[in-house]
Amino acid sequence: MAKKQKKQTGGAGGTPATVALTAAGTAFTVHAYEHDPSHPSYGEEAAEAMGVSPERVFKTLVAEVDGELTVAVVPVAGSLDLKALAAAVSGKRAVLADPAAAERTTGYVRGGISPLGQRKRLRTVLDDSAAGHPTICVSAGRRGLEVELAPGDLAELTSAVLAPIGRA
Description:
By secondary structure, this protein is of the alpha+beta class. 24% of the residues lie in helices and 30% in strands. It has helices spanning 16-24, 42-50, 82-88, 99-106, 151-158; strands at residues 3-6, 29-32, 58-65, 68-75, 79-80, 94-96, 123-127, 136-142, 145-149, 161-163, 166-167.
């Protein structure tokens, strides 16, 4: 069962994502759960552990669009449409980034990459389905930790473009 905490501060238990949210004065809820390394999907595991619909839990993927690293935030219930991602940022071609490059650039490990508090701020695209929910959940910066916030706040804090980049 997930534990909830309102407005966690960036103290000893904080991650760069929660520190960024706190610094911005953004309302958020932290959901912590026991991560099972044998689970086949980080995002589906998070949705199940929190008892939240997979349409409201979003995964953070790092792709390369015309050679530039770009963050795509899409529902865990679906997948990323790479052509749509490229189009959303006026690019021609997108491929998933090398996991080591994604980890090195964001400062997070795979399965715990957050769109917030990245080591190097990357161009971000948020699937437009997020706007249909009062709140969504994204990684808080480590496996077993999610942050719930309003999609508009996420878009504002990451300077995200909203576009239809997810597919069912």
